[in-house]
Design a protein that fits this description.
The protein starts with a strand and ends in a 20-residue tail after the last strand. The protein has 275 residues and is an alpha+beta fold. It contains seven helices and twelve strands. The radius of gyration is 19 Å and the shape is globular.
Amino acid sequence: MKIATYNVNGVNGRLPVLLRWLEEEQPDIVCLQELKAPQEKFPEKAIRDLGYDAIWHGQKSWNGVAILSRVGEIHETRRGLPGDPNDSHSRYIEAAINGILIGGLYLPNGNPRPGPKFDYKLKWFERLIEHAAGLLETGLPVMLAGDFNVMPTDLDVYKPERWLDDALFAPEVRAAYFRLLDQGWTDALRAVHPGEVIYTFFDYFRNAYARNAGLRIDHLLLSPALADRLVDAQVDRHVRGWEKTSDHAPVWIELADKPKRRRKPASSTQAGAPL
């Protein structure tokens, strides 16, 4: 099964790009972020015409998240994170599809730092960490996928010294990300590409895409039950080079139908030890 996350940076303005990518790559399940469209303006028909079921949580001008599926009915379980009944931002949507519980998210940017937007980001992250712990406790196959707006390490950012004051690279934000991972989540892209420079976002300015001057801020986190099924994880970097495209590239993983077999340790005889 192929599951992707893609910050489309405006689902209607980038609709030709999104539809082209869906048709060419045919992911089974997709989490979308930054729809930038109210609920009634989501392009449902165009997406359904490609064979995808869809749920979405829209918002005028900003934010917005969606989940698409072509491999089973979408059973929505939640929209919006718990912990703040006054939070009106459309940033989280959750559903069960084909035996997997998927949380699609768009974590706040947080700039400028310091300030109220950064405070909101930290509070939102804490709510995510608390909710994620509950998801893991279910023991179900669970995934958190989306634009986390955090570069976890120096390897995840071109020229990290230029980002030291930015909310995406703040020590508090990076620490929150690793507290999330420490619950037992696997960063799928980094698990497949340890030590490799691999980016998911390229700014529109200063020819960033052509220079490979990017950031890794779009992540797919897997619970232990799903991490055992991870086969591959990649970035469709070429999509960032298309005309009128998003500043993010799609990121995807491939999951096996069953957990991968672990090799049994060799016996003393097999290892060539004396009998």
